[in-house]
Amino acid sequence: MKNFKMNTSVQWLLAFIFVLTLGELAAQAPPPPPGSNNPAPFGFVELLIGAGALYGGKKAYDKRKEQKH
């Protein structure tokens, strides 16, 4: 198995994602009362985080692809 060496930007990205995930898990709202038919809303902030993660992943993929050629 080859030595896997992570560059600093990947390490910072993983640490940032870990901190965000930990914060989201700790700040969860309590469940709705029984018999309630109101599911929790999917907030705009979650959509922005997902879009940012996809955009960053695409940029990293393109950069890695460019470096290999």
How would you describe the overall organization of this protein?
With 69 residues, the chain is mainly α. It has a domain at 43-69. 64% of the residues lie in helices and 0% in strands. It contains 2 helices and no strands. It has helices at 8-26, 44-68. The longest helix is centred in the C-terminal third of the chain and has 25 residues, at 44-68. The radius of gyration is 18 Å and the shape is elongated. The two termini are 23 Å apart.
Strand and helix map with partners:
Blueprint lengths: L7 H19 L17 H25 L1
How many β-strands, per DSSP? 0
Q: What is the 3D shape?
A: elongated
Report the structural category.
mainly alpha
> From N to C, what is the helix and strand string?
HH
> Percent helix among the residues?
55-70%
Integer average pLDDT:
77
Short account of what is shown:
The protein is mainly α and 69 residues long. The protein has helices at 8-26, 44-68. The radius of gyration is 18 Å and the shape is elongated.
Summary keywords:
mainly alpha
